[in-house]
Amino acid sequence: MNVSIIVPTYKEKENISKLFDRLFKVFKTHKINGEIIVVDDDSQDGTTEVVNKYSKTHPVKIIVRKEERGLASACIEGFKSAKGDILLVMDADLQHPPEKIPELINAIKNGADIAIGSRYVEGGSLGKWGIGRKIVSKGASALANMLFSEIKDIKDKESGFFAFKKEVIKDVKLKPKGYKILLEILILGNYDKAEEVGFEFGKRSSGESKLGIGIIFSYISHLIRLLWASGKLAKLIKFCFVGLLGVGVNLGILYFLTTAGLHYMISGAISIEASVLANFFLNRAWTFKEEAKYVSLKKSIIKDHATRFIGILINYVALYTFTEMFNMYYMFSMLIGIIISTLWNFIGNVMWVWKQEK
Ligand code: GDD
Ligand code: MN
Q1: Which pairs with CB-CB distance under 8 Å and at least 24 residues apart come from 223-231?
Q2: Ligand 1 nearest atom to the CA of residue 92, by list position
Q3: What mean pLDDT do residues 101-129 have?
Q4: I need a labelling partner for 222 at 20 to 30 A (CA). Which of 53, 67, 149, 329 fits?
């Protein structure tokens, strides 16, 4: 199998020749066939000259982009011109040890579709990171786990060091925004097995990191876009729409039964239950149509009730908290409570009610 190694660079003149030397040594000792594709964003510091020099004697290509900038889009550009069966992405600053490449490739040869150089599994470590960056990294990961539970078992979703079979991204529309190209591939790609290989995230050999504090916002907007692209946001919108219909059912039945002569507290109890059931069956037939095929009606109906019961408590606590502690107008507090409990209900529906039992 041939490997294409994609190295995005921005002002890495000092590092790139060291990287190449170590890379070609690894190629030689492990008899790896492959090419290196450097995607440079017009560094103007001599990076391209160094790469061009190597390309005369080694399988090295360079793409220089003048118009665009950004790590993820640089990687995608590299994927497009890669000839290998396996694509591998790594940084130029030697924080990703080239000596780990054979292990990544072997993982794929042994059946993985994606092999991730991971800082959080055995044999992996963060190296010397400040506490701030550690917290940000953990927080980012926790947020992604919450929104995308299907990849929660992958410990290092933010790694910039990974390999995958080219089929994984065949016909997949990767969006060239953000920094976390791996996350994009994990959520949108076609694969069965992703495996992690521990590695020690080294110190930057020279120069400094290009990823500043803005990366946090870029990461969050990336997550939101992935929510949309993976169809989850559409689900949330459907869920809210069904919820509104449920309100209609609730009010309609309340009015009808009360004018028919029932005490309003009794028709209220009936109308609340009716709206919960209406929500449930509409979501079952529409929002979670696919998922519903694999879960039993009885279990999901009980789980949905349990979720919504807690949702009501959350709504009630929010009503109190925002009114009493934050001195808000009680109608606003209720509105916030409704929003929070709806999100709660939605997450409960996605992660529990309609989750196939293993
Ligand atoms: N072409 C291109 N364009 N390359 C870029 C750009 C860009 O806008 N920004 C950064 N790079 C290149 C750098 O030259 C380097 O080779 C690599 O991308 C990583 O950039 P760093 O600036 O060294 O990133 P980092 O060390 O802070 O972050 C690394 O670790 C993170 C894990 O915490 C990266 O691997 C991230 O992808 C990873 O998430
Ligand atoms: Mn780096």
Answers
A1: 223/143, 223/144, 223/147, 225/175, 225/177, 225/178, 226/147, 226/148, 226/183, 226/184, 226/187, 226/188, 227/147, 229/173, 229/175, 229/187, 229/188, 230/148, 230/187, 230/188
A2: 16
A3: 93
A4: 67
Weakest-pLDDT range from 142-146, 190-194, 349-353: 142-146
| pLDDT value of residue 213 | 66
324: CA distance to ligand 2 center in Å? Answer: 48
**Residue scoring higher pLDDT (336 or 167):** 167
Mean pLDDT of the chain: 92
Residue type (1 letter), 216: I
Residues 6+ apart with CB under 8 A from 313: none
Which ligand is in closest contact with the Cα of 209?
1
Q: Is 291 in the pocket of ligand 1 (CB under 6 A)?
A: no
Contact predicate 44/74, CB 8 Å: no
Which one-letter amino acid corresponds to residue 203? K
The DSSP secondary-structure symbol of 265 reads H
Mean pLDDT, range 55-75, rounded to an integer: 94
Its sign, for the CA torsion 348, 350, 351, 356, is: positive
